[in-house]
Structure formats: C-alpha cells, structure tokens
Design brief:
It is a single chain. Strand 5 and strand 6 form a beta hairpin. Helix content is 41%, strand content 17%. It is built from seven helices and six strands. It is an alpha/beta fold. It has a six-stranded mixed beta sheet, with helices on one face. The protein folds into two domains: 38 residues, no CATH class; 156 residues, 3-Layer(aba) Sandwich (Beta-carbonic Anhydrase, Chain A). Bound molecules: zinc ion. The site of zinc ion has 7 residues, from helix 5. The site of zinc ion (ZN) has 7 residues, from helix 5.
Length: 197
Amino acid sequence: MPTEEALERLRAGHKRSKPDACTPATSQDLIRSLASEGQHPFATVITCSDSRVAPEILFHCRLGDIFTIRAAGNVLSDIGMGSLEYAVDHLHTPLILVLGHTGCGTVQSACHPGHHCHPALQALLDKITPAVRKAGGQTDLAEDINIENTMREILAYAPFQAHPEIIFGAKYDIRTSEILYLKSFDSAHQIVTSAWA
Ligand SMILES: [Zn+2]
C-alpha cells in the first residue's frame, strides 16, 4: 500500500471515530470528561507492538481506561520503565499487566538470529536473548519466559519492589483470541501461573 493511501486510511478512520458518530468508547461526554477531569486508567498494560494485540480492543475498553506501553516483544527499555513509573506513581493505576502473545515475530527473530540488523533492533533482540537461551530456542517457551522476565524486571525496579501484588503477566493467543493464563507473584516473590478466568 502506498504511504499516501495509508495516511488517507488513518484520516478516514479518524473521521468515522469522531464523537457522536460512533461507539460509547469514544463518546463526546467521555472525551469531555477525560479532558477536564484527567485520566484515571485502571490498568497499565505492557505489550508487544504487534498489530494483532491492541489491548484497548482485546479488553473491550474505552478511551482513558488503559495506559499502554508497547514495544516489539513486550520488553521494557529505560524509557518504557519511566512510562510505567509515571503510570503508577502519578496516575495511580492499581494493576500492571505484561501481555505477551503467541506467534510473536520478534521473539522468533531472537530465536533465529542471523539477519543483519542495526544497533537499535539488536538491542531489543538482546533483551529477549536470555529467554531464548533458557527456552533452548523454542519460540513458544521463549515467549512465556520473556513475559516472566519482564515481570521480574519490573519487580526489581525500586518503586515496585514492595508491590509484587500489582504485577501480572498473561499471554494472548492470536489464533483463538483467548488469553491463555495469568501469572502473578506469590508471597515468596516466585511466579505462579493460574487460569485467566
Ligand atoms: Zn510480538
């Protein structure tokens, strides 16, 4: 698709989503109240940039409901961690969810290195490498471990060390649109896996 056509699609889509012309998720009242009273998102979601894993759509949420931090492979950089700190310290979101997914192309790339890439992408893949090693190169398992590694990275960051109870992990299945499990920390700060619902 030519770039100009892609831009036109965004313009047309935004026009259709204008207040009063669409769903309650973007109603004029909601937009007005979010602008005047500020945002109070009830969850912060760290997820992959993958176009099939948009948290606002997957969790059927409205504007203002979810503070979203996205990077390919649902990894956190220092900047991402800063966004997370802002969400919890300033916006007081009571829950952090690391949402990975099946068929993650970024994890797959980390499992099968060899293509030349520039330093920025290499740095991102390097964040996933420990999970790949632990998984013996199996993409599916590496996705699971990568979710846990991001959870542990959050817990290791000073502002969150005393709050393991707000940190969760989950995995979305892009083939069935189901969420496969929920991960959380137990009282000994070990990760336990349970059913999502
Ligand atoms: Zn992905």
